[in-house]
Amino acid sequence: MNIITKLFICLASVLFAASVIATPVDTYEFKTTENQQRALSLAHQLRCPQCQNQNLVDSNSPVAQDLRLEVYKMVDSGKSDPEIIDFMTSRYGDFVLYKPKLDSKTYVLWLGPFGLLVFGLLIGFIFIRRQRIQPSETVSLTPEQQAELDALLNKSKSK
User: Fold this and answer.
1) Global pTM exceeds 0.90
2) Which residue, of 18, 43, 77, 107, has the greatest Cβ tally within 10 A?
3) Element (H, E) at 69
4) What is the Rg, in whole angstroms, of the alpha carbon atoms belonging to the chain?
5) What are the φ/ψ torsions at residue 89 (nearest 5 degrees)?
């Protein structure tokens, strides 16, 4: 085989491998391109209830595919974004939202990081303040300890 044939086979193999890796595409026909963009935006905002941390677009699970189709149909039927989000949260809970609403159940989620930051800054401030306030103590040696230290130092100098 000549070099051109080998190069062609390598190139064809790479192109074939790239097509195998490609993710499946939804084939839903939207009424308008605005509906398509809105539906994709909503599907990116909603989390798959089955997957760990993937939105409806990134997930390939059957549940995500069904929910994606449901979102697409609701957008095409003219429902507003809040109506679709309310439908999904009433069915699957606040877990499907990447940005949960601020209410009594999610105060810890939203305010917890700020509380931990304030707590850490307070502990750091107290620690630094104590280090500055405490006077450095001078250690005085007894005459026997001083003599022993001098002997050790003289011994190490003579080596």
Assistant:
1) no
2) 43
3) helix 62-76
4) 33
5) -70, -30
